[in-house]
Amino acid sequence: VSELETLPRDVSRLAYTQRILEIVGNIRKQKEEITKILSDTKELQKEINSLSGKLDRTFAVTDELVFKDAKKDDAVRKAYKYLAALHENCSQLIQTIEDTGTIMREVRDLEEQ
């Protein structure tokens, strides 16, 4: 609207039409970029979910195997504690990645306003 007010009044109809087509082209490019970003985001979320599930399944199996032997051997008991700590750290890492993505999205939304 401000651009319209700054344009001279004697600009031809062709100039207005070209400007409108230019704006429409820019909007089309922005939509394509937004679609690509949404696709990338969905792909990353699928990957995070897959890795999170794999982590939980692997931990469950390993936990069961190590826990059986942890009752008998002090070294295995220590290994079990390390396994539990590793699992907790991986879970925290995944949570941090998800939180970072959420914050980045919120920042981008605020910048666009």
TrEMBL record:
Entries under InterPro entries matching the protein: CCDC22, CCDC22_CC
A GO MF term: cullin family protein binding
Domain of life: Eukaryota
Pfam families linked: CCDC22_CC
Domain CCDC22 coiled-coil: 1-113
Single GO biological process annotation from the record: positive regulation of ubiquitin-dependent protein catabolic process
UniProt protein name: Coiled-coil domain-containing protein 22
Species, as recorded: Lynx pardinus (Iberian lynx)
Lineage of the species this protein comes from: Eukaryota, Metazoa, Chordata, Craniata, Vertebrata
